Amino acid sequence: MITNPAKAEPAPVPVDVATAYQLWWGVIGFGFVNLLGSLALMFGERSSLAEQLLKDVTARDPNLKLTQDSVELLVFAGMALVAVIGLVVGAVALVIGYQMRRGRQWARTLLTMIGVLLVILAVPNLLGLAAPDSAAMLVIGGASIVQAVLAAGAIYLIHRKESNAYFLQRFTRT
Fold first, then answer.
1. Is the pLDDT of residue 24 over 60?
2. Neighbour-count burial for 105-134, b at 16+ CB within 10 Å, e otherwise
3. SS3 for the chain, per residue?
4. How far apart are CA 51 and CA 59, in angstroms?
5. Predicted confidence band at 174 (pLDDT cuts at 50, 70, 90)?
6. Does residue 146 register a pLDDT over 90?
């Protein structure tokens, strides 16, 4: 079998990039824990959320007749929408992580930006500024901190010397 010498084999994935990919799986996993904690918090507060929504809607349009049951149904629909959006975001993050593992520079850049955002958003939890008043808030804060640590580690790994060479190989091939 004759091979094309101009078509070089792609370089193997460096250990740092493979480890960063695994760390991103952890980030996404703790994102789902965060999502479940948020949904549990919303479920616990569903009556007060429904009451507030009913007050807001009635203040805007007093002629609109809504019952408490219909407003609670809207709150449940909102919770379902939050769950679906969270699952879609997680799936998209997995695809971006896979592309990063394949050596795509745009995926590395995007994951770096997302990771920096996760680290910044975890600072209030880390410093104790977002004091938990329920078990769900404690889970959300803990998941946020672990996500930030994993994301920071992944960012570090995908910007090391071997990782840089791996991501830049696509641009240096002739």
1. yes
2. eebbebbbebbeebbeebeebeeeeeeeee
3. CCCCCCCCCCCCCCHHHHHHHHHHHHHHHHHHHHHHHHHHHHHHCHHHHHHHHHHHHHHHCCCCCCCHHHHHHHHHHHHHHHHHHHHHHHHHHHHHHHHHHCCCHHHHHHHHHHHHHHHHHHHHHHHCCCCCCCHHHHHHHHHHHHHHHHHHHHHHHCCCHHHHHHHHHHHHCC
4. 12
5. very low
6. yes
Q: At what angle do helices 105-127 and 135-157 cross, to 10 degrees?
A: 140
Q: Residue 128 region, left (φ>0) first, then alpha (ψ -120 to 50), else beta? A: left
To the question of pTM greater than 0.90 for the whole model, the response is: no
Q: What is the pLDDT of residues 43-82, one digit of tens each?
A: 988 888 888 888 888 888 888 888 888 888 888 999 999 9
Confirm if 20 and 112 have CB atoms less than 8 A apart: no
